[in-house]
Write a structure and sequence with these properties.
By secondary structure, this protein is α+β, with helices and mostly antiparallel strands. 36% of the residues lie in helices and 22% in strands. The strands form 2 sheets. Strands 1, 2, 6, 7, 8, 9, 10, 11, 12 and 13 form a 10-stranded antiparallel sheet that branches. Strands 4-3-5 form a 3-stranded antiparallel sheet. The longest helix is centred in the C-terminal third of the chain and has 30 residues. It is flat.
Length: 542
């Protein structure tokens, strides 16, 4: 195919408008001015049984009941329950009183000081509780398009498809309404097809909702849509690239983090370093890695005894002779995680090529401690990195935390843990990615190394979320409105490598200098302490 050129012809516009008109005529859609809905209001009530346990707080001296408590668990009232039901004065007096000796209790309990707890009765009761019902929703797909490099290619004029879903039995979607690029629309069924016209590179907005026979409407949803017309001058082939950014999107996965940042990927798809190949074989590499080769030799995975100094220099890296000796094993090792990288990419949406390049830059695929530092594993995780993973990727925290704590400690999220618990779960995550074990064959626990691949993908996902927040906090604007999708990923790598502080300071300096927010300007504004992140990012992205 020849060079692709954006081109719109009068004939093309006429045919597109005609197809759009026909599509409108073939649906029961009517453009009107619908009123945006209020939030869904769906509740029912159910009757549940429970046991009420009545406890008394009595005075020892005269057995007078000074406080009554009704609780719903078998054990004694908690301190909080005593405080709430009995008041601060009684609570304090009861808590601070001297214990009554057992012999006094048995002979003359009236001489005991203060108060005592007594379980009075247990009663089976019923109560009516409100139960929230699931609201109706609307999902978005495209008709006649197929995914390509993080975008959607359409060989025919694209049509946006909105499908209403009513989860309540006996109810149905009556219609879908909304506004597309300032124009109102209304469809009298659960299916709404909207022909899309070409947009500029900034795209257009869509707001939409569903009306239900239940008597209410869904939440008000939104989407950001870009439609770019392309024509190949050599073949006269024409097509459209369509990107839909919305939480309601149900097509193939969008370019990673694009929805979080509200940032469209480059027209036509993402660059190679942010791509995921269709075939795992395309992820293969055959690069020389001195550090990796040195470790393979020192762990006796490779025999370099014929080389001077056994093929390793004073820094633990392979000499040219050691590198030659290690080449077959080195090539096998740098590709042994490729299948797992592809799987982690599928589960997290993080580009597979990015994950692999990050591993190459961080550890040269050796899953241990680099130069006796605090960074460990294929992606060189620290406790700060673990903090990012848990704080900014709550789904991952929910998966990992129960591996560390039993009970309900994990139920309320990472921030609900106390400082000691947070330190423990961070430490557990860092430990989980360090595959170097003296008692393992060859000193490497490959099962642990394999497990770590998904950990690093989830940490990158957390870093992308944090990056979006850092940009917003510094600018009060959505990241995608300020800079490109590719540059936002470069910002994310700064955040991963050097921390949010380095990224925030560089952003502040860029804004303070009235410079455009892009990688070129931001990288030049990194502080001396953070400047190493520039080479780090460019090694991975270029």
């Amino acid at each position: 195919m020849g060079r692709k050129k954006r081109k719109t012809t009068i004939g093309g516009i006429f045919l597109f408008l005609l197809s759009g008109l026909l599509a409108l005529l073939n649906t029961e859609s009517v453009f009107a001015a619908p009123k945006p809905p209020s939030d869904p209001d769906r509740f029912t009530s159910i009757v549940v049984e429970y046991t009420s346990y009545e406890w008394w707080l009595l005075r020892w001296g005269d057995n007078e009941v000074v406080c009554e408590m009704n609780i719903e668990h078998e054990d004694k009232p908690t301190l909080d329950e005593v405080y709430i039901d009995c008041g601060e004065a009684l609570y304090t007096a009861w808590l601070e009183q001297e214990a009554c000796p057992p012999e006094v209790i048995s002979r003359k309990p009236a001489e005991c000081p203060g108060y005592y707890l007594h379980h009075s009765s247990s009663t089976l009761k019923e109560r009516e509780i409100a139960l929230a019902l699931p609201p109706s929703v609307v999902w978005i797909t495209l008709e006649g398009c197929f995914p390509k490099d993080g975008t959607n290619r359409c060989d025919l004029p694209p049509t946006l498809v909105l499908r209403g879903d009513e989860p309540l039995s006996g109810e149905k979607i009556l219609g879908i309404k909304g506004e597309l690029d300032g124009e109102s629309f209304s469809c009298d069924s659960a299916l709404c097809e909207l022909p899309l016209s070409e947009t500029d590179e900034e795209g257009i907005t869509l707001s939409f909702w569903a009306d239900s026979s239940y008597g209410d409407s869904s939440h008000l949803f939104d989407a950001h849509i870009r439609v770019i017309y392309m024509e190949d001058e050599e073949t006269d082939e024409h097509f459209w690239y369509v990107d839909v950014l919305s939480a309601q999107w149900r097509g193939e996965a969008n370019a990673s983090c694009s929805e979080s940042w509200d940032a469209f990927p480059p027209i036509g798809g993402v660059p190679e370093w942010l791509s995921t190949p269709e075939d795992v074989a395309d992820l293969e590499s055959d690069l020389p890695y001195n550090y990796l080769a040195g470790n393979l030799i020192s762990r006796n995975i490779v025999d370099a005894s014929h080389c001077a100094d056994f093929g390793i220099d004073v820094y633990g890296q392979a000499t040219p002779c050691g590198l030659d000796a290690a080449e077959p094993a080195m090539l096998e090792w740098q590709n042994r995680f490729d299948v797992l990288i592809m799987k982690a990419s599928e589960e997290t949406s993080i580009p597979a090529t990015l994950i692999k390049r990050l591993f190459a830059r961080e550890s040269q695929f050796w899953p241990g401690v680099f130069n006796a530092g605090d960074d460990v594993g294929l992606g060189q995780l620290t406790e700060n990195g673990a903090d990012i993973a848990f704080l900014w990727n709550p789904v991952f925290f929910e998966e990992f935390c129960p591996l560390v704590f039993e009970g309900d400690e994990c139920d309320s999220g990472y921030l609900a843990l106390d400082e000691a618990q947070q330190e423990r779960v961070r430490g557990a995550l860092v430990y989980s990615v360090n595959a170097m074990k003296d008692d393992a064959p060859l000193g490497v626990d490959l099962a642990q190394a394999n497990y770590s691949v998904n950990v690093f993908a989830n940490t990158l996902l957390g870093s992308c979320e944090q990056t979006g927040t850092v940009v917003f906090n510094n600018t009060a604007q959505s990241p995608g409105a300020l800079t490109s999708y590719e540059d936002l990923w470069k910002f994310t790598l700064v955040n991963y490598n050097a921390g949010a502080g380095c990224l925030s300071l560089a952003l502040g300096e860029t804004i303070g200098n009235n410079q455009e927010i892009n990688w070129e300007n931001l990288s030049s504004n990194l502080t001396v302490v953070c400047m190493g992140a520039k080479d780090y990012v460019e090694d991975i992205s270029e």
